[in-house]
Amino acid sequence: MKNLLFISIISILICACNKKESICTNDDFCTFINTQNFEDSRSVVNHFLAGIDDKLPKQEKINLLIEWLNCKNCILNTELICVSCIRTNPPQSELNITIIENGTEKEYTMDIIMGSPLVLSRYHEPQ
Questions:
Q1: Which residues pair with 123 in a beta bridge?
Q2: Does residue 114 have a pLDDT over 80?
């Protein structure tokens, strides 16, 4: 019985680690950020968002995006401003990101359209 419990715990830990590794993908996001190519970086984000299971609650989808962004070496911090707080159709959410762009810290706000799938519509200066 103890062996079965031990094996179960180890299996859960291995699965959790594999899930964490899979979300931290190696892509060109930071390369695009460092060359101020925000249009192509937006495409990388939207590609990630398109791969999130549509059946997940919207808050969980946003949390996965935050986790994914925080894996990037050019992102210092990602902060949730609000979920579905901008009254458009569909509503929009906002994230505040602090990035290292060519060695300099800069802040941007990301507007996320809460459709299916979620879509990064734009970056803009924080207000």
A1: 110
A2: yes
Chain position carrying tokens 């699965």? 15
User: Whole-angstrom Cα distance, residue 29 to residue 35?
Assistant: 10
Measured over all CA atoms, what is the biggest interatomic distance in the chain, rounded to whole angstroms? Answer: 58
48: tokens are 């990630």
* Secondary structure of the chain in HEC code, one letter for each residue: CHHHHHHHHHHHHHHHHHHHHHHCCCCCHHHHHHCCCHHHHHHHHHHHHHCCCCCCCHHHHHHHHHHHHHCCCCEEEEEEEEEEEECCCCCEEEEEEEEEECCEEEEEEEEEECCCCCEEEEEECCC
Segment among 34-38, 64-68, 78-82, 101-105 with least mean pLDDT: 101-105
In sequence order, the 6+-apart residues with CB closer than 8 A to the CB of 73 are 30, 100
Q: What is the pLDDT of residues 15-26, one digit of tens each?
A: 444 444 467 877
State pLDDT tens for residues 19-55.
444 678 778 999 999 888 999 999 999 999 999 999 9
